[in-house]
Specification:
By secondary structure, the protein is mainly alpha-helical. It has six helices and three strands; from the N terminus they run H-H-H-H-H-E-E-E-H. The longest helix has 22 residues.
Length: 181
């Protein structure tokens, strides 16, 4: 998963829309539910996540660039729009936008039950590769039994923190590679 790259977040958002919001588009038509089992034709939590992601990107860009062009109509186009509209910002603000996009890509993957995206990151405290997603707390938790807080509980972090660390590390790595050449 790349850092600040709109393609990952946009691709996952498209996948969420196509596979989780509009079920039954591919293959045989699904039978209509009876009145007794009136469940929605899609997962409403996914629709809400897509809308919230779009709004967050739109609002964050508009806060930094008040005269930004209007966002695209399609939710998955908002990431390319955001990168285009914020290209002139200071590097710190661009990193903040990249961290938001990366966090959203993690959220999209988790919504699709792809928890492997969490295990691709080392623990911020102990450096081991024992992170997992804890749905009850909606946080990333380290499974290393030595990695605990003062009360003896496993250390945990919000996705926002993990995304910020990842984006900052990628930026530092790119700067080292540029200066080495």
């Amino acid at each position: 998963m790349s850092t600040g790259d709109d393609s990952t977040a946009a691709r996952q958002l498209r996948l969420l829309q196509n596979e989780y919001v509009q079920p039954g588009r591919q293959g045989a038509p699904t039978p209509r539910p009876r009145q007794a089992d009136s469940s929605p034709p899609c997962r409403l939590g996914i629709v809400e996540l897509i809308q919230a992601s779009f709004r967050e990107v739109r609002d964050t860009v508009r806060a930094d660039v008040p005269d930004a062009a209007p966002p695209p109509d399609r939710a998955d186009g908002v990431y390319a729009w955001a990168i285009d509209q914020t290209a002139h910002l200071k590097p710190e603000r661009q990193l903040a936008h990249a961290a938001m996009v990366y966090r959203q890509s993690l959220e999209h993957a988790i919504a699709m039950r792809d928890f492997a995206v969490i295990r691709q990151h080392p623990c911020p405290a102990c450096g081991t590769w024992g992170l997992f997603w804890e749905p009850a707390s909606r946080q990333v938790v380290c499974v290393n039994h030595y990695c605990t807080d003062d009360q003896g509980k496993s250390r945990s972090w919000p996705l926002r923190y993990l995304a910020h660390r990842h984006v900052a590390a990628e930026a530092a790595r790119k700067n080292r590679n540029v200066s080495a050449t």
